[in-house]
Write a structure and sequence with these properties.
The chain has 146 residues and is mostly helical. It is 76% helix and 3% strand. It has helices spanning 9-31, 35-57, 62-91, 99-109, 119-142, and strands spanning 112-113, 116-117.
């Protein structure tokens, strides 16, 4: 079922929905301490789904597809943080803390590596590294398959 005229909405909406789903799956796995075991598999799955959506939509403007890819990776990580907030506030029955207060508390507590607390800078470095690594791996898988 290919669309005759190129349509950007199919990959854009599809990538957003898949990104939200992946954000929730990452949170569910991270609660069970299995996050890093399945990260690469989900990046590959995301790239393959986006490839399929691009083929169905007949949309081939790579600069716009790159923007969709970057936006959807960002949605994965932002939704991951939001779903973590939802799970933690539900688990500890703390409905008084808002999402931005939750993020502020996470940054204030810092990123812990064994007994070393790297502070907010550690969190920022880890998040940036995750975004860049996800982009590189995902784009390397996505582009050759078009």
């Amino acid at each position: 079922m290919l669309v005759q005229n190129p349509d950007i909405w199919i990959p854009a909406i599809g990538a957003t929905l898949v990104a939200l789903l992946l954000g929730f799956i990452f949170v569910s796995l991270s609660v069970e301490d299995m996050y890093f075991l399945f990260l690469l598999e989900f990046i590959v799955a995301f790239a393959l789904v986006l490839k399929y959506l691009v083929q169905v939509s007949n949309f081939t403007d790579m600069s716009k597809l790159k923007k969709i890819f970057i936006a959807s990776i960002t949605v994965v990580y932002v939704s991951n943080q939001y779903f973590q907030y939802q799970i933690i506030t539900e688990r500890y029955a703390d409905s008084s803390t808002g999402f931005f207060d939750f993020m502020k508390m996470r940054l204030e507590q810092g990123f812990q590596i064994e007994s070393l607390n790297t502070g907010w800078i550690g969190y920022m470095v880890v998040w940036i590294f995750q975004l860049i690594l996800t982009y590189w791996i995902g784009w390397a898988i996505f582009v050759p398959r078009l």
